[in-house]
Amino acid sequence: MEEQGTLGFIESCLRVLNSILKHFKFFAVFVSIPTFVTFVLVMWVIKPMYIAAAIVTPPASTQPMPVVPSGLKNRIGMSSLLGISMDNEDANAVWTILNSWEMHDMVIKKFDLARHYGFKGEFYADLLKDFRKNFGLDMNKEEMFLVYYKDTDPKLAVRVVEFMLGKADSLFNVFKTEQARQSRVYFEVRLDSCEKALDSLINAFVDFQVKNNVYDPNVQLGATIKYLNELQAVREEVGMEMNFEKLDRGENSKRFQELSKRVKSMNSALGGAIKGKHRNIGMIELKKSPELYAEYLRRESEIRIQESLYKMLRQQSEQMRMEEAKILKNLHVLDPPWENNKKIYPLRGITVTYIFLVSCLIAAIICCIRDYLEKESGRGTDVAREWSILKGYFKKKEKV
Fold first, then answer.
1. d(CA 220, CA 235)
2. Distance between CA atoms of 142 and 51, rounded to whole angstroms?
3. At 151, phi and psi to the nearest 5?
4. Which of 50, 112, 269, 396 is 20 to 30 Å from 336 by CA-CA measure?
């Protein structure tokens, strides 16, 4: 079985070869014409294309995360406070600028590409389409921008890439400046409102302190309790002495009367201190001290939050002001474009070889079909009759 299959294949190859040799003139003409035409086109007619490419680092984020004061870190969230995002989108902005209509329009007008391309269309969008066929922007494995441009003039290709990189850097600086200006205006508005709120809280806090004579609850409360303890100890000592005097000399003695007056004055002082009659000297009424202390801490906490917020907004406002004023080079070219004289299109050898092989295949098929139809015509089969009818149809068309 293997031998018969091998013989069948060899026989088929011999038949194809005999068909080609039988119609060799047709085969040679059919192969030579497209091959010669292709050779002429790729050598002298079709203009070769050259490419200029550059590798550029994407811009790094120039907007760092704000430093959150420790007094504010655990109380409020940055995203809800500022209403802005700190994600790095600078690379996406540069990508958009390089692919924008504005950038491509500037390149077309700068280098008069309409005349260079020989554009005769009616719509400007078609010219942009022609330019975008030759321009490319990609991201390589190292996550760097790969900017390239193809043209028939290698010098022009280099100039186009250099111009686009310079313009992209300039437009990105404009974008960052405007972004910083908007952020600065936002922070200044927030700073103004925060300053007014802070002044209002401070004034209300001062009024609260003056009205209630509360300046430092911890110190005042400690001093009040210490004063009461000392007064109570002295009263108990005088009371013991008064009882001893009563037992020794009686209630009518002069010493007993003096001690009694001292006890009454001490009781009056204790009652006054407990009821807060000594507020003008910094002592706190004990019954109201928890309420006053809680209110004092609440107001003081609000002021600290506003102070921390004010410091952070002031810092960010100054940072945005500096960001708005500075102009830096954001796109750093690692591999600049250079005049590459090696064409990328057309590939002459590959193109001519491909056309030659395809022409040989088609010519061989046509030769086999012609040989088969000639044999069928000699036998007078149905295929021959159908072929004769088809040829007659085409002859009639030619006469008409």
1. 22
2. 21
3. -160, 165
4. 112
